[in-house]
Amino acid sequence: MNENWVEIKNTALKWIEEAGEMLKDSLHNSLSVNTKSNPNDLVTEMDYKIERYLNDQILHTFPDHNVLGEEEAGADIQSTEGVLWIIDPIDGTTNFVHQKFNFAISVAVVKDGVGQIGIILNVMQDEWFTAIAGEGAYLNGQKLASVTETDLPEAVIGLNGRWLAREKRSGDQSLHTMVRKSRSVRSYGSAAIELAYVACGRLDSYISFRLSPWDYAAGLVMLDEVGIITTDFQKRKPSFLEKSKILAARPGLHDQLLHYVHNHEGFDY
Ligand code: 2AM
Ligand code: CA
Ligand code: CA
Ligand code: CA
């Protein structure tokens, strides 16, 4: 079957717009917040509510598609055969709870293992990052330019301070050296937003030591469209089904950064 990706993207945009309104409305009420793997790993009733809403819309409209989500959807999925939606109902739940700002809905559509659509909505900023494979990436309808090469001394890197603390314990210094040699680092608390920021040039790179497909699937489609190189720390293409380390960077810079992170394979939370 030949899918009409433009039509599917436009349908998804309507659902995501609705979901974004649900999230904005929820900020007026008190939220039930729980922890998952550790005390810093938060989940709210809205994470479940938004994922269920998107899951139900997708399966109602496209009964032969599959859905993989962070909270509940598709926990048994082991293959990217057919059409697979990969969704993160709230990326940046800690921001959602603590800052009520800088959180996103991230939706990707993948067919037979190839990313076709990527949508990231920065909910409170009303910023829509969208991409269809081969058709370019857009920010609020404006086409994003292809990126050019850059070097570490001119680079602003998205990086969570957690990983520097982790390196300190390990005795290694290469990440610290990388930060010192860079122009600056930033940490926004949402992997999807940070990847979108690399796509539109606000960041030159984003690095994370442990992410899941719903954190980066939409970003991958977008970054490919503007010429950003996105791999794990061994320069492999990140998986749509398994956790991965993520190094997204402009050409030239990507190889320079690999040198500083490639020996951090064992790093986790
Ligand atoms: P989340 O908000 O959807 O959980 C925080 O720096 C970024 O890392 C967010 O994009 C967050 O996604 C992601 N992340 C992935 N695994 C995480 C974990 N175990 N705890 C906290 N954040 C996690
Ligand atoms: Ca989470
Ligand atoms: Ca996430
Ligand atoms: Ca999430």
UniProtKB/TrEMBL annotation:
Gene Ontology MF term list: inositol monophosphate 1-phosphatase activity; metal ion binding
SUPFAM superfamilies recorded: Carbohydrate phosphatase
Keywords: Hydrolase, Magnesium, Metal-binding
InterPro entries: Inositol_monoP_metal-BS (IPR020583), Inositol_monoPase_Li-sen (IPR020552), Inositol_monophosphatase-like (IPR000760)
Gene Ontology terms describing biological process: inositol biosynthetic process; phosphatidylinositol phosphate biosynthetic process; signal transduction
Lineage, opening ranks: Bacteria, Bacillati, Bacillota, Bacilli, Bacillales
Binding locations of Mg(2+) 2: I90
Name recorded for this polypeptide: Myo-inositol-1(Or 4)-monophosphatase
Gene3D superfamilies xref list: 3.40.190.80, Fructose-1,6-Bisphosphatase, subunit A, domain 1
Listed cofactors: Mg(2+)
Pathway the protein takes part in: Polyol metabolism; myo-inositol biosynthesis; myo-inositol from D-glucose 6-phosphate: step 2/2
UniProt-annotated binding residues for Mg(2+) 1: E70, D88, D91, D215
